[in-house]
Design brief:
alpha+beta
Length: about 70
């Protein structure tokens, strides 16, 4: 098996994974709200054992999509 190419590993930044509690704190909502978003498919998550992890980029994208013009 060939070793991974150096070029590929340098071009992809490592995603920062957050726990549900960290996401809830970042969004200023309860953990149950974050679990609901994950289970409804509105917020992508990775299951690690019995817990979930969400990338910081996915949280930021969800928040960006959620903004609307109230005026």
């Amino acid at each position: 098996m060939a070793p991974p190419s150096r070029e590929r590993t340098e071009s992809l930044p490592d995603p920062k994974f957050l726990t549900i509690a960290e996401v809830a704190s970042m969004m200023r909502v309860s953990k149950m709200t974050v679990y609901r978003l994950v289970h409804n498919g509105e917020l992508p998550a990775v299951r690690v054992g019995r817990s979930f992890r969400v990338t910081e980029d996915d949280v930021n994208e969800y928040l960006r999509r959620s903004f609307y013009d109230a005026g």
